[in-house]
Amino acid sequence: MESLGVAELAKLFAVVAQNMADHEETLREMDAALGDGDLGITMRKGFAALAESVGTYEGNDCGEMLMKGGMAMAGAVPSTMGTLMASALMQAGRGLRGQGAIDAAGLATLLEGLRDGVAKRGKCQEGDCTLLDVLAPAARSARAKVDDEDGGLTEVAQAARAGASEGLEATKDMVPRFGKAAVFGDKAVGLVDQGGQASVYLIEGLTSFA
Known about the structure:
The chain is mostly helical. The chain has helices spanning 6-22, 24-34, 39-55, 62-76, 80-95, 104-122, 132-147, 153-170, 194-206, and strands at 4-5, 101-102. Strands 1-2 form a two-stranded antiparallel sheet.
């Protein structure tokens, strides 16, 4: 596979939505340990709205489709995490505006958009123990594979998954600085970030073709 068109991308987001539904209880339990326990339902509802939006999109612009999907998510789950994910998707859409299909470099651009959207909206940095600590290494690994000039779409997707997994594991050693988890401080060390886990499910779904 050399590129993903609008239809293929929409199908991948349907996989993401199913991923979130399948892991709703896992996310709920993780969030209940350090937050208010609503992450599972937020991700399920938010990505279901996104999948419905992109699944009914009739244009031929991957960026526009993502922006519309992000807006649908924002309307469905106007919570902190819902807003962060929606902002990430809309930023990714801006970076892909006008593209009828995305190749390996386009996938890296999509991931960089997710990263930048979270950083901008959440005003967070790597090391703060947030979903950015998963999205940033995923994007970095993807871009590095593109720059090596030996990475096609499949290889870039695999690199992104590996980066996301490594990033999630690294959050175990971080002290949360945002959200309700920050109240726990050092007591949260040893646990992976729940938003980071949701981001892994997102990236796994997006790269499930590889």
